[in-house]
Automatic annotation (TrEMBL):
It comes from the Bacteria. Residues 9-373 form the FAD dependent oxidoreductase domain. This is FAD dependent oxidoreductase. Gene3D superfamilies: Aminomethyltransferase beta-barrel domains, D-Amino Acid Oxidase, subunit A, domain 2, FAD/NAD(P)-binding domain, Probable tRNA modification gtpase trme, domain 1. Residues 728-807 form the Aminomethyltransferase C-terminal domain. Keywords: Oxidoreductase. Belongs to the GcvT family.
Length: 816
């Protein structure tokens, strides 16, 4: 007879490394009334055939945090839970064939240093000293990570399981979850041995996560790849070297050729990520089986031939070894390759910890993050890179998931250059004037599926994908972006901006509710203002524009990518007996930005609206017989308006404005120019400058905090912080940069000490200098303070600027 409980606080579905880590961390946090269900034995999914590599490397700040935590946890876990584990900290070497790759490595070294990891760059001779069997004649250098290594995935999972059980959590093997339903504000998870009623449920089902998600009405954005690696027999030369050295070789990654090579006892393990990759379980002819526990796909060695030959040329002793075994198993992929950790979109008290491409190295950190989501409702690190709500409905389309998953897999080690746009899965959402701006030379990039113009090319400009393979500011786009910025400065520019996330808040009590949720004031009817939402720790959750049409009728506008995230935040705080309504109206409305000193003259030709109304006001009007809301704001810092229209009216309004603007010097501009223009004004960008990594006070946003209000979310924490002293502060820096501007999370130095980090950087074409926004130790956040900013390994002088915009510091042009 089963001893399955009828009730638990949390039920986790899936017994791989991630699900068990989540259980362990919940138990560590005191939530021991937690149950994990596994339909087979623990590790039966991707965990059992995983290679078990544990890198800390990542170009993502949050994922590096997560992987760093995992590595640290694993080093102590065996002793903590009294379970034997094979964890080899061998270090790793990532080979660099190009200057661009070395730039990427140098940036990661800086990020790692900030997180307390001593990564370093090796010369070809130093590579040879650590890995004597490698050919280095065509290499420029390498990244050395002394913390890298490999672990036995089964032992890791069992150690986490023992730790969870010892604390009181329960694991039920060979007990499949077969369904879930909502009843009386609780979840009921069904199994063949009975139902479990619980408060929270977690989908940690690995490559079965999409099937489990359907029980909740959720289409999980994922697909499944076939990943192969090859195990080789003993290599006598390697065995002799390893015996004499007393340790294994570092794990070798040739990231430009796209494979890793690891010493496996006295043999080797070669794992390619091949461009000619293969997806599985895509069609009715290739359906996902009900159970694939401890199973593999047939070998497909032909796909790996090029990679094997390349590896043999790189490490010739590999060519002397016989192939002992092929492993070919399923690995899940999201459209961007990052896992899903956090609230299940649109589903109460349901969470996801699934679709891990690198589940072993991320399992420890993922368990920590998931446990924080459940027990505290928030995480220590801003984890937007893994938040399930970063994908909206369009990303659940299976064709899209397959195209993006295969693209990510085939470019697993690719560099993510700032001007590059990945080509797979494009044109999911098109503006009504997409064809018009394409004809003007628009070079597009996807934002939450919406195609937006990044910059506008002219005849003869190099618009090839190859041209974007650089970290440098210079490129065929540079002159065009400058022209766009100067057109906005001197005449006028128009930006088509489809996909703004918009919510309609309407009804009695709406104003009072909003007032208690945001840190500042709610604008009066006819006005618009920025509103900031803080969590209980006073950290920045999000920023929205609040447009008040009536006393209790508002439109809230936020970033395109924030659509599900911000709507969930608002819904979470709605009173149960609310007399007002909140609706997502994103798909109904469009926006164009018209800015520049000639923008008023252009509008005067197409509308009889009162264009003298001041900054931060709005009014209803008509252009070409179509109704729109004309909003006197400008993210570029010039005289300007946002033109908010019904989707079907966009083209008519654009055509009228474009025709009128010709004689006034109107030009189109794109997102790259917008970013340059906004950074000169010190305007913050979401999930860069604005994130839960920082509080409102650290972010320099106290002017948006109304201390006179009796209460608002985060007020107590912010009051404590103000009394105790703010440890770091937002600053604008003028940087004497070289060929590159400061990317996100570039380190700030003062007298050889780490004193802060950048949150964004770009070239300011109006001010003629490189500009960075960042967070700096409070005592140094004084105008005139000289620092150094580390940009791709080199340090450049930076000077703290006064706390006001670099461009038009008194906002005279903006208010004109």
């Amino acid at each position: 007879m089963s001893n399955l409980p009828s009730q638990a606080r949390v039920v986790i579905i899936g017994g791989g490394a991630v699900g068990v880590s989540a259980l362990y961390h919940l138990a560590m946090a005191g939530w021991t009334d937690a149950v994990l269900l596994e339909k087979n034995e623990l590790t039966a999914g991707s965990t059992w055939h995983a290679a078990g590599n544990v890198p800390t490397f990542s170009s993502s700040w949050s994922i590096m945090n997560m992987q760093r935590y995992s590595a640290s946890l694993y080093r102590e876990l065996g002793a903590q839970v009294d379970y034997p584990m094979n964890y080899h900290v061998t270090g790793s070497i990532r080979l660099g064939h190009s200057n661009e790759r070395l730039q990427e490595f140098k940036r990661v070294v800086g990020m790692g240093r900030y997180q307390g990891m001593d990564l370093d760059i090796l010369s070809p001779d130093q590579i040879k000293s650590k890995y004597p069997f490698v050919e280095t004649h065509d290499l420029i250098g390498a990244l050395h990570d002394p913390h890298d290594g490999d672990i036995d995935p089964a032992q890791l999972t069992q150690a986490l399981a023992k730790g969870a059980r010892d604390l009181g959590a329960r694991i039920f093997r060979f007990c499949a979850a077969i369904g879930a339903r909502r009843e009386n504000n609780e979840w009921i998870v069904s199994t063949p041995d009975g139902d479990i009623r619980c408060e929270y449920v977690v989908n940690a089902a690995g490559y079965y996560a999409r099937e489990v998600g359907k029980w909740f009405g959720r289409e999980v954005p994922m697909m499944v790849m076939s990943h192969q690696y090859m195990l080789f027999e003993e290599i006598p030369e390697l065995a002799a070297w390893s015996k004499e050295a007393g340790h294994k070789l570092p794990l070798l990654r040739d990231v430009d050729s796209s494979y890793y090579l690891r010493q496996e006892k006295t043999g080797m393990n070669l794992g390619p990520y091949e461009r000619n990759c293969k997806a599985h379980w895509l069609t009715p002819e290739d359906p996902m089986p009900e159970d694939f526990s401890f199973q593999l796909f047939p070998d497909d060695l032909e796909r790996l031939e090029w990679y094997l030959n390349d590896a043999v040329e790189r490490v010739p002793i590999l060519g002397t070894a016989g192939l002992s075994r092929m492993i070919n198993g399923p690995i899940p992929y999201t459209p961007d390759g990052n896992p899903l950790i956090g609230p299940m979109p649109g589903v109460p008290n349901a969470f996801e910890a699934c679709v891990f491409t690198f589940g072993i190295c991320q399992a420890g950190g993922a368990g920590k993050v998931l446990a924080e989501w459940l027990t505290e409702g928030q995480t220590e690190w801003d984890m937007w890179s893994c938040d399930p709500r970063r994908f909206t409905r369009f990303a659940s389309d299976q064709d899209y998931c397959i195209a993006k998953g295969m693209e990510v897999y085939g470019h697993e080690y690719a560099m993510h250059f700032p001007k590059h746009a990945w080509p797979a899965g494009r044109n999911r959402k098109l503006s009504p004037i997409h064809d018009r701006i394409a004809a003007l030379g628009a070079q597009f990039k996807s934002y939450n599926g919406w195609e937006r113009a990044n910059w506008y090319a002219k005849s003869g400009d190099d618009t090839s994908e190859q041209s974007t393979q650089t970290w440098n500011r210079a490129g065929p786009w540079q002159k065009r972006i400058e022209e766009e910025c100067l057109a906005v400065r001197d005449a006028a520019g128009i930006l088509d901006l489809p996909g703004f996330s918009r919510y309609r808040l309407q009804g009695e009590g709406a104003r009072d509710w909003l007032l208690g949720l945001i840190t500042g004031k709610v604008p009066k009817p006819g006005r618009i203002g920025l509103a900031y939402f803080a969590d209980d720790k006073g950290r920045i959750v999000t920023e929205m524009s609040v447009m008040a049409l009536e006393e209790n009728l508002f439109f809230l506008t936020t970033a395109a990518t924030a659509q599900w995230h911000d709507f969930a935040w608002l819904q979470k705080h709605l009173p149960k007996d609310a007399s007002f309504t909140l609706d997502d109206v994103t798909d109904n409305l469009a926006c164009q930005i018209l800015s520049g000193p000639q923008s008023r003259a252009i509008l005067a030709e197409v509308t009889d609206a009162d264009l003298s109304k001041p900054w931060l006001t709005h009014l209803s009007c008509q252009i070409a017989g179509r109704r729109l809301q004309l909003v006197r704001v400008s993210f570029v810092g010039e005289l300007g308006w946002e033109l908010h229209t019904e989707m079907d009216d966009t083209a008519t309004v654009f055509d009228a404005v474009w025709a009128a603007g010709g004689k006034h010097g109107l030009k189109p501009f794109g997102m790259e120019a917008l970013d340059s223009l906004r950074i000169e004004k010190g305007y913050r960008a979401w999930k860069g400058d604005l994130s839960t990594d920082y509080t409102m006070l650290q972010g320099g946003l106290e002017r948006f905090v109304d201390w006179a209000k009796p209460d608002f979310k985060g007020k107590a924490a912010l009051a404590r912080e103000k009394q105790q002293g703010v440890t770091k502060r937002f600053v604008t820096l003028a940087v004497e940069a070289g060929e590159c501007d400061a990317p996100y999370m570039s380190t700030l130095w003062r007298d050889g000490q780490l004193v802060g980090e950048t949150t964004s950087g770009n070239w300011g074409y109006r001010v003629g200098k490189s500009v960075a926004l960042g967070m700096l130790r409070s005592d140094l956040a004084v105008p005139g303070t000289e620092l150094e900013v580390e940009i791709f390994g080199d340090r450049f002088k930076a000077v703290v600027q006064p706390d006001r915009p670099l461009w038009d510091p008194e906002n005279e042009r903006l208010r004109a």
